[in-house]
Amino acid sequence: MAAKLGHDFLAEILRNGDLAVDGTMGNGHDTLLLAQLVGSQGKVYAFDIQEQAIDNTRQRLVSQNLFDQRVKLIHDGHQNIKHYIEHPIRAAIYNLGYLPGGDHGVITKTETTLIALEHTLNLLSSGGRMVIVVYPGHPGGQQEKEAVEQMVSQLDSLHYKVLKMTLVNRPPSAPGVVLIEKVRE
Q: Structural domain tally of the chain?
């Protein structure tokens, strides 16, 4: 449900020719959606530190005939986004935690996630949006969730709108989503 809300939030604004970022490509679901939304004239930069994630994403894109010039799969941590992207982006998505079906010991880390989010916010164009799906149910996940929420709660309300959504009838370990819109530079 959290990921679907994030997808809908980004689909409202992404158009052919836009630039987008998948900060945690995982199995490629978000990368695929972004590639469809930015169209043949757009570009998606997708990051992951695991070769398995890159392979899974490539296979997903190939199966949909979308592994072309519009997608750049980057085998690097999302904290290095500024080394790959110089132009403003329209949208970004981060699904924090671990690779589903992969090694659950390899997780996103609070320190690198905060750096990545800061760089992404700086790249976000006016009217652009970012989705952060948090998974507090794994070791380190609760601390990462709290740090992300602390960071986004301090964003200037004249420049950003921030919405946090959680499932109130689920345990605190259930995923949640943070939706951010940059309303002015």
A: 1
- Residue 103: give the domain boundaries: 2-182
Residue linked to tokens 């006016």 = 126
Question: What CATH code is carried by the domain that includes residue 168?
Answer: 3.40.50.150
**pLDDT tens digits for range 89-109:** 999 999 999 988 888 889 999
- Residue 160 φ/ψ region, left for φ over 0, alpha for ψ in the -120 to 50 degree band, beta for the rest: beta
User: DSSP states of 17-59 as a string?
Assistant: T-EEEES--TTSHHHHHHHHHHTTT-EEEEEES-HHHHHHHHH
Beta bridge partners of 144: none
pTM: 0.95
Which is nearest to 91 in space by CA: 120, 64, 118? 120
Q: Can you tell me the distance from the alpha carbon of 29 to that of 35, in angstroms, rounded to the nearest whole number?
A: 10
> On the CB side of 43, how many CA atoms lie within 13 Å of its CA?
12
Question: Measured between alpha carbons, how far is 180 from 165 in angstroms, rounded to an integer?
Answer: 11
Burial 13-29 (b: 16+ CB within 10 A, else e): bbeeebbbbbbbbbbbb
